[in-house]
Design goal:
With 177 residues, the chain is of the alpha+beta class. The chain contains 3 helices and 9 strands.
Length: 177
């Protein structure tokens, strides 16, 4: 008996809902209401959309957007790699397991990579490399960036970094997921 009452009520409510939609009484859900809210944190997957540098107080000099890039931030760790320049990395001509010295240099110079731990406190993002393409940046000295979030855009600015002494560097990331 209870099953029949539940079934009858279920059919009645479904019919009433369908009838309200047909008559235009039901209010449609706006597409914006179904979207997830934008997170104001660094966790997620990002791509580089701008690299720029400048002398302190000067205008930003924007470089070519990297051909490929990926930054990943989890709860405590980060990893990034990108291919500077407008095109793909040059392939090794012969046996890829036996590149020439010139091909090794080209391969080394054709990407940037690091991974480690991070801390975000207010607008200050501190990256502490565990593994870095450049062994000189695995010295235990963290890099400290000033950050600005604007929706799904993250701007990271660092003053006097070891990879660009005497200048400021800005990396702009766009959230992928």
């Amino acid at each position: 008996m209870l099953r029949r009452v539940s079934l009858v009520l279920g059919i009645a409510f479904s019919a009433a809902g369908a009838s309200a939609q047909e008559k235009g009484l039901a209010k449609p859900v706006a597409p914006e209401a179904t979207r997830a809210p934008v997170r104001a944190d660094v966790r997620g997957v990002w791509k580089v959309t701008e690299l720029a540098s400048r002398a302190p107080g000067a205008e930003w000099e924007v470089r070519t957007t990297p051909y490929l890039s990926q930054y990943i931030f989890t709860g405590k760790h980060y990893s990034y790699m990108y291919v500077p320049g407008a095109g793909p990395r040059k392939r090794i001509a012969g046996d890829p397991n036996r590149p020439t010295d010139a091909e090794k240099v080209e391969a080394y110079n054709s990407f940037v990579a690091a991974s480690g731990t991070y801390e975000l406190s207010g607008q200050i993002l501190t990256l502490a490399a565990i593994v870095h393409k450049n062994p000189n940046e695995m010295d235990g000295k963290p890099l400290t960036y000033r950050t600005e979030f604007d929706g799904n855009t993250l701007r990271m600015t660092i003053a006097n970094p070891p990879f660009l002494p005497g200048r400021e560097s800005r990396t702009v990331l766009t959230r992928v997921e």
